[in-house]
Amino acid sequence: MNKKKAFAVPYIVWMIIFTVVPLFLILFYAFIHRTDSGSLVFTTEYIKSALSGSSMSVLILSLEYALITTVICLVLAYPAALFLWQLKSRIGSIVNLLFMLPMWMNFLLRTYAWRALLDANVPINQFLQWLGLPAMQLLYTEGAVIFGLVYNFLPFMLLPIYTAFTKIDRSYIQAAEDLGANKWQTLTHVILPLTKPGIITGITMVFMPAVTSFVISRLLGGSQTMMFDDLLENQFMLLKDWNTGSALAVIMMVLMLISMALVRKTDDDSMPGGGI
User: Fold this and answer.
1) Cα separation values, 193 from 28, 47, 85, 199, Å
2) What predicted TM-score, i.e. pTM, was given to this entire model?
């Protein structure tokens, strides 16, 4: 065996054990039914069951939350990345580090911290009362879930967009200005197309994890809000229904593959010769 190929053997073994085998088991439980006699038959009943009733409504709600989160993150991250890019390189790096600093803390701890801050008798409501405003129910609402998703996934949108900005040749900006373009025209016709790969990467890094998030909805949304992964966990851990749970997982994988294909197509179209 070639020495270079030998270095890939541990990775291949790892992939087979922790990726291929679990994927095979999910597909097995999603499409194979064991009859009373012990024989195995192929069936799509579990997929049909997963696509009906409350499961579908939970999936639609998760997609809605993920879409809202992605849009908000993009609206917040793009101006922030533009601002950081316009700063001096050293100052911009420091400010960017401050944006990324919360990511060094455990995901669960960050969410627990906001759960405490959004509670009824904590600083936010006390500040509202100090302003003469009535106390608000902030925790266990849809707004709290979306806020938690945006807070936790905003850096995943900011970092790739800022990286795309740092790769821009500033001579393009100077050329656009020399040709009479104003700031808005320079932004829309020069800067935005050049940062499109970063935007697409950011959307991918935010939308997909947001769809499959369940800790945030549980801690900030309580029992009133259930996302798709909460439903998955209930099927596997509480109901011990591996067949329906695996069918739900297959649906999620298909959605992720479709999302990745759409993003890949958009990314390919944005490259030279892609029609844009």
Assistant:
1) 44, 41, 16, 10
2) 0.83
